[in-house]
Every structure is written in C-alpha cells, then in structure tokens.
Amino acid sequence: MSARDERAALTDRPSLYAYALSLIEAGPREGPASGAVTRRQGFPLPAEPPLPDGPRLRGKKGFAAVRAALGPLLAGPDTPEAAEEVHRRLAELPMHTGAVVGAVLSMPLDDPAAARAVARRLVRTGTLSKPVCVGLALLRRLGEPEDIPVLRVLTHLDGLLELALTALEPLDPRTAALRRLDLRTRETDRLRPFVDALLSGGACDVRALLIGLPADLRAVGPSPARRIAEAIGLAALLRRKPVDPRLLARAARLLVRMASPRDYAAEVRSYREAVEVCELVVRRAAALPSGVDHAAVLLSLAVDLHSGATRLLTWRDGQVEQLLDALGALLHSPAWEGVFTEPDPAVEADLSPAVRRRAEWLRYTRDRVFLDPPPDGRLRIEVLSRDPDDGDPLETRFLLDGEPLVPAVFGRGAGNSPEYLLGDGRLRATEEPRDVQLAEAWCTEGCCGALWVTVVREGDAVVWRDWRLPSLLPGGAPAPVLPAYRFDAVAYDAEVARASAETRWSWSARVTARLVKEELNARRELLGRWDCRLSYAMSPTRTPETTEVWFVYRPGTFEGTATEDGPWIQFRWELPDDGTPPAERAAAALRRLATEDPRGFAHCAGGIR
C-alpha cells in the first residue's frame, strides 16, 4: 500500500473515541456516557499499521521530532487540515508510543490554551493510538472538567486505559478510583460485592457498603485502600453527624492500609483528602469503644504519624504533634488502659503465640511512640511496625532532623530489619567506609532498587555520604539529591547503641531465630557436614508462631568443592513455638542438626531440578 493509499485508509477509520463509544453503547451494560463505569479490561484497539522500518528516534532527537510534529497546531490556527497534518506526523514518527508520551509530559508549553485545544482535538478525532496518547498526555497536564466525559470513554480502550485514567484522576477521582477497583478486583475477591454495588449506577448507601466491608481489611493493599476511599467520598461521609463508630473504624483502617509499604509504594501521600480524613478520625476517635482491635488501628495510625509516610503529608505547623497528643491522651485514658495491661502469667500461658505477640506489640509501641523523650541529636533510629495482625514488616526507621528518611527519599519499601541493620552491626561507624543498604524495594533490589549509603567515621564526626537510590520516586517525581549528612560521633554512637540494646520489638519465635542463626554462623560444621549452608533464620510477622530456618544444599560444600553455578536445593525448616523458652527451642534444634540430616525433615523450597 502506498503512503497516499495508507493515509486515505486511515482517514476512513472512525476516531478511537467514536469507536469506544459505539462499543459501550452496543453492549448490555451502561457506560460512562451515562455516568456509570463498565466492567473489566478495556476493549481491544483496532489493528494499526506497524512502525516504519529503520532506526528509532530517542533522546533529544526524539523530543525535537515530537515538538515539530505538534507545530502546525501549537503555532498555527486550529483547523481540521492542521489537525490532520499533526495526526499524520505523529503516526509516522519512528518512535514507540511510550517514548512519545514521555517527551510530551516533559515538554515546555509556551501557550497552555493552544496545547489544551490540540489535546482535545487529538483525543476526539484521533484514529490511531499514538496521536490519541499524545492528546491524553497533554490532558494529564492541562485537563479541565469539560474533558471528563471523553476521558471516561477512553478508559475503556485497552492501550489507552492507563493514560486516560491518569488524566481523569485529578478531574474526577471517584470515577477513576472505581474504574481501577473494577479492573483489579477478581470475582473471588472479598471486595467484589462492594465494587459491584458501586458499579450498579443506582442509588446505593455507600456508608452501609463501607461498614459492610470485612472489619480487618488486612488483605487490602495500599492502592485498593486509597481507591475505596476515593470512590466512596470518605471525607464527606466522615463529616456527617452523628458519628458512627463502625464507619470511623473502617476509615482508620483504610488510612493505615494506605500508608503500608506493601505493594511497592505507600499511597497515603497520593490521597488528596488524607489530611482531612486523618484529622476527622483522630478528633472523633473517642467515639470508638475501647478494645484490642480499635487500639491496634489507632496505634498503627500513630506509628505512621510518628515516623511513617503519613508524617510527610502537607500539615499545618504543629498539626502532627497535636494529633499524636490527642491519640496518646486517648490511649492512656482509664477507659483504654485495660487493653494495655499485662495479663496474669497463668492466663497468658493459655494464649496463642499470635495473640501474645499482638499484646506485646501494643505495650511496646505505645511506649515508643508516646512515652519516649524526643531525640537530642539529628538522628533517631526506631524499630516499629503496624498492627502485626496485618502482616506488614517489622522495620528499622530513621528520623533525620525529625523527618522520616526512607518514605521521603525512597518510598518503594520499608526500612530493613533490625537484625540486619542493628543486630549485625552494619550501622556502627568505623574509619573504614562501609556500604549499608537501609531499605529495599518491596519486590527486590534487582527489580525496583534499594536505598544505599556509605557510613564512615571522620574524626569527631560520623558521615553518611554517597547515597545510591532510584532516580525516580513512586509516581514518577525525581528523587531528591541527598547531601552528605554529618553527625556528632559521640551522639551517633549513643543512638546506635540505644537502638541496638532495645529488644522489646521481638517475640519468642524471632528470638529463637536469632539464637539459631548466631550459633549456626559460629558452628558452620553443623550444617556443613550435610553439605548445607545457612541462608537466614527468621520469624515472619505474618506467622509469629513459627521460626523458619532457610538453608541451601550444594554437593561439595563440606569439602570446599561446591561452585556457585553448580546444582543446589533450598530448604525451609519450620520450628513451631510450643511455649518453651527460646533458648531451649534453639538448643533442641541445634542438637537435632548435630545428629540428623536436615534434608530429611526440612521442606524443599526451590533449586535446580
């Protein structure tokens, strides 16, 4: 087909907007043309011609080519002929759509009104995905309420869906949130009835729907929690009186889930009404009946206000301190004191390890957040977690000049475990520079990066320098360029020693794990005689009743002939918390390793076939 024939064929195609609208209107479900949202993944895009052969434009050349392609509309009159010329130029650019969109998002716009007109022309009349994506990228920056109907329609085309939703979110957060919930909620998910009720488009009692959600919401990640709050208009619900304790508890739980580092990024900083909802929850928290579950969610919220992502919201001067004071006063009041009282030893002995762990967490965390004096120096190190029943990790947190470091500059995962940073002495400063990983992405460092710093002692100072971290924060904003931080050496050593000496954050199975790890590292022959080597020992937050010992079998380990690229098998050995003291459980485990091949009783967890 000649270039002329190809242009004629493209002209005969309907616009992607008209194509999507016709599919929605022809379907059995109502669509966004009437204000509702259709279900599931978007409709497939019509077939499009492939990119022309030859090298692809990148970098400055690609940026200039995109700018030149938009020229007839950005610099001249908005006419159908100019629009057709821009559409042709964009479609023929030897660039992938993602590269074109990236150029548009970073392009300076001398005349926003003209650029907005270009965007509207492209999203309404574009017949190919690349020109329409350019229009959506411009509307992401310049969209106004009148663009909502078109954006709603385009969220139902696969290939345009994500960009259209991103453009829609600041203009119509409720519709965008509900669309995302629908896309990501499976039929078997406990949230599915909730989402279906909101999607029905009829009059529904969103207050009752929220109260009807599972009370714990523990399986809900940060992104769904934020979308639920946006889809139901949570702030508006909380403003109503009288206060409903059940609604208040669900709102607090959603805030806590939004601030979780699980699933790559805390979403609370992207939730536009987070400050108002947090203020409403705290100021009305006295309406909640005292009890373990309510204490746990309020204390989890306090943890995030103290040193988590929630502290980084745009607060008024002194507002965070006021909210923490209010929560502290409530949780220390006589009505709530019984929740934190240590049970009689005979009663405690009958409790499950998970229940004991949660009770210990309540007492320890209340002391750390509310009773400890504020730090004297620039650096404060805290070992904290949210409600252990939620399964979020126990993390080492760093307050640098009063601000939480990891969520501010990294945000892709929690601080590393206290055993790794404090127990193994990685934060201790010497004259020999030491590279320390402070945090790792929720997936892995190889996928989404980690936060590294070099720690070194220089005379009477300790310096954190040479930061290594991803160039972008979650959401795409540039990561800050961090300077070298200098700490008074005496104050630094005292803070690391204080944090290292604190062990109340641990629990019985975790203590067992530490003892087993220390002994196996000191007596490598215990596993070595079986051609095995310790990987790590742990007690995950999600299963506090179990100690897990992970090790790798490589033939030739004992004789020193094993190679890294040779065959291997990974094993996991589970030691249940049976109520005996951790030292006794650890000693029993070591005695068994001394006499019995662990490959016979541990679980195979991976390796080379």
What are the salient characteristics of this protein?
609 residues; alpha+beta; 4-stranded antiparallel β-sheet; 28 helices; disordered N terminus
Helices and strands in order, then pairings?
Elements: H1 3-12, H2 16-26, H3 59-74, H4 80-92, H5 97-106, H6 112-125, H7 129-142, H8 148-154, H9 161-168, H10 173-184, H11 192-199, H12 206-211, H13 222-232, H14 234-239, H15 245-258, H16 274-283, H17 292-307, H18 319-331, H19 334-340, H20 345-349, H21 353-371, E1 379-384, E2 395-400, E3 403-404, H22 405-409, H23 418-423, E4 434-440, H24 445-448, E5 450-458, E6 461-468, E7 485-488, H25 489-501, H26 508-522, H27 525-528, E8 532-538, E9 546-553, E10 569-576, H28 582-595, E11 603-607
Antiparallel strand pairs: 1-2, 2-3, 4-5, 5-6, 6-7, 8-9, 9-10, 10-11
Give Rg in angstroms: 28 Å
Helix/strand-derived category reads alpha+beta
Which regions have little confidence, pLDDT < 50, spanning 5+ residues?
A: 1-10, 29-39
Oligomer: single chain
Largest sheet data: 4 strands, antiparallel
Q: What gross morphology would you assign?
A: globular
Q: What is the arithmetic mean of pLDDT?
A: 89
Give the amount of beta strand, in percent: 5-15%
For the secondary structure, the number of strands is 11
Widest sheet: strand ordering: 4-5-6-7
* Helix percent band: 40-55%
Please work out how many helical segments DSSP would assign: 28
What is the first-to-last residue Cα distance?
Answer: 52 Å
Task: Please provide a written account of the structure.
The structure is a single chain. With 609 residues, this protein is of the alpha+beta class. It has 28 helices and eleven strands. It has a four-stranded antiparallel sheet. The protein has a four-stranded antiparallel sheet with strand order 8-9-10-11, with helices on one face. A hairpin with a 2-residue loop joins strand 2 and strand 3. The longest helix has 19 residues, at 353-371. The two termini are 52 Å apart. Residues 1-10 and 29-39 have low confidence and may be disordered.
